[in-house]
User: What shape does this take?
Amino acid sequence: MRYYTCIILTTFLLPAACAPPATPPPVTLTAPPPTPTVAPVDLSAPMEVGSTFTYIDGATLVAVPAGDFRMGHGKADNPEHLVNLSAFWMYAAEVTKQQYALCVAQGQCAPPDPADDLRYTDFASQNEPVVGVTYDQAAGYCSYVHAALPTEAQWEKTARGPDGNLYPWGADDPTCDLLNFNNCVKQTSEVTEFSKGRSYYGALDMEGNVYEWVADWYDALYYRITDLCAHLCFALRSSPRPRLPLRRNRPNLFRARLPIRFSRG
Assistant: This one.
């Protein structure tokens, strides 16, 4: 009787084991529509030296508190003088290829010039600064993330600190462990690679690696003009400062005022 039962069970189990699996119903994945802009955030972290904030595009912001700083370095087009600025948040590093590519993918930015940024699509280079962008392209990205290019004064205060350091890290001579310069790397480097060369406020690559855009346009005679106006042009004191359509020669990236740092093309 036991032998007969075993035969019956085997007969019923084998066809079930050999039956093909049921076909699962098809699944349709619909991608969400692209967002034309990123939403602004409330920058409510304390405005003190050392404060940081993670922004909407993943960038780290550093706080630059309000107050005076010593600007310029004693030449005709940048005489040393005291400047007072309101507090602001500054991008700790230049805008990377990865960050800029998101803006391009959303249709809000034009791709960089491929002749100037040969490794724009290279996966291993995505944390390097985007280069080959014009002033208008840099400003377009800043608008995309609800920010702006820094003024020359904001950029210089972030780089040199309140006391006008000769270099971002202080007075020591530049070396290859502080910045990417003098063929130390022979190409652009990742924006976080030279942490030893960070500025008083914690910003990286304020010297070396690439040139950066700022909001101001360059006028070699600006300080001479304003000195003359201080004596003769009293009516102009409340007017916007005169600027010629030349771009400030600052180190070729962009940072975003909330100031963003962008490399110059």
